[in-house]
């Protein structure tokens, strides 16, 4: 397994991704085209989880197919061990690494999810997770379902990006800076920054139902995937333990509100999430033991956030049930079957 902690140092995420965009005008050589691309994700990964949520909310299942990697991987690559024979049925690959090498034979960086693969060439197009969901929202509009919400409205984009920037640096990536800190000093600094940001969010969300405006936006998707992993993983495994999420009333109510909203909780696989972190990060958890707790049934308790007003989907409608092949397995989620 790879080493995630570098002794004596802060954790710095490598943000150099393949920056190609799939757009209506095809300016990077990749035009929007239904059926041409395959989203490769893993339910365990918070960055990939964003794409699963947005794809569901917008109804892009028929336009962009989905391949799911298993929750664990080795130093080389995520693998398709959930599929029969361990092979993705569309790409014919055992490892996501093969799609990267099909385009860049000497690709030097980590093999990450989410990734979008061009099916005709079986080569990776992009793994730039911050732009993948934005492009789903703005470039794939011809294939949105009837009633799809506007997750990236023009009038709110500046505020969405401002809020999302702080959420990313201090919370989404902040938990990793705690967990992968290589010194006490680095950990202490990361811990303080994380909980300063969570306190800011607690205050913000005590007065409004969603992060920006009165409907669900891209900003909410980005925060939710970290909150869903906080008590099961980050509190213990990453030592983010000033308090649990369920001890922060506004954030906990907000997280439950979203979890119980179609398109959010039905993408969450708590079994895979815990298995990923506790098994893959062997330098943090060398025994590989996956904890049995916490009790996750509290995700279904009433949140009362509707009292703050707001309309989850604005002028749109909720998505329908998940595609049968994409339903989270029974026992992996507290949601009823």
TrEMBL record:
Active site per the UniProt annotation: 45, 176
Sample GO molecular function, one term: glutathione transferase activity
Entry keywords, A to Z: Transferase
Assigned GO CC terms: cytoplasm
Annotated GST C-terminal domain residues: 153-280
Chain segments carrying region Disordered: 300-337
PROSITE patterns: GST_CTER
Pfam family, one: GST_C_2
Protein name (database record): Glutathione S-transferase family protein
Species for this entry: Microlunatus elymi
